[in-house]
Write a structure and sequence with these properties.
Blueprint (H helix, E strand, L loop, with lengths): L14 H10 L2 H11 L6 H8 L3 E7 L5 E7 L5 E5 L2 E4 L9 H4 L5 E8 L4 E13 L2 E12 L30 H9 L18
Antiparallel strand pairs: 1-2, 1-5, 3-4, 4-7, 5-6, 6-7
Length: 203
């Protein structure tokens, strides 16, 4: 299928992204690039990609207005796409994850699928249209690939992980020694800055 790009007159970027692009002096270039790469549907290769994943990262907004990052896991195939405008996810939020409350019909949602051994990742922005006891449906608003920059290739499996089993939950007001050690040992650090030439999104 031919890539139709972004079909709308309005920019595919939100106001915050436009402000950053304008400050860096790259708004016109990013607009051209974004209209070529960002789509309002899932290309077939993205539909196939999500279907082979065993986990997906989820971004929602809590009732206090703060963004929240979550992860959903399942056997490959737990994510499916009945058509190019729809994504279906057959998974429950993890134990005690605030996603239990932010996952509501009509809410905006961001999904990031990553295949770490190939460093491939695809993004989807959409709206939750239906929720069932063990699954929910998302209407595609935007779909695009992200560049692999900063992704470390690695392999792992979730065979011994049971998402339904209760886990210890800790609330932290500040980072302790264990958290600081974990961050210090990490080989990747994510931050707000993104090179102007990269079409990755800041959401």
């Amino acid at each position: 299928m031919t890539n139709l790009g972004w079909p709308q007159d309005d920019s595919p970027f939100h106001a915050g992204e436009l402000a950053i692009q304008n400050r860096l002096g790259v708004q016109e270039r990013m607009d051209r690039q974004g209209r070529r790469i960002i789509r309002d549907y899932l290309p077939n290769q993205h539909r196939d990609f999500f279907a082979q994943l065993s986990y997906v990262l989820v971004g929602t907004v809590a009732s206090d207005g703060q963004p929240w990052a979550s992860v959903l896991v399942g056997e490959p195939g737990f994510i499916s796409s009945p058509d190019r405008y729809t994504l279906h996810i057959a998974a429950q939020p993890l134990f005690a994850d605030p996603l239990h409350t932010t996952l509501t019909v009509g809410a905006d949602i961001g999904l990031l699928g990553i295949e770490l051994h190939t460093r491939r990742r695809n993004r989807l922005n959409g709206t939750i249209t239906a929720i069932q006891p063990e699954e929910f449906t998302v209407a595609v608003g935007q779909s695009f690939g992200n560049c692999p920059q900063y992704i470390q290739a690695r392999r792992f499996d979730l065979q011994s992980f049971d998402a339904a089993v209760a886990k210890p939950v800790y609330a932290l007001a500040m980072l302790g020694d264990a958290e600081r050690a974990l961050i210090a040992a990490a080989d990747t650090y994510l931050h707000r800055h993104r090179p102007p030439g990269c079409v990755g999104r800041i959401s």
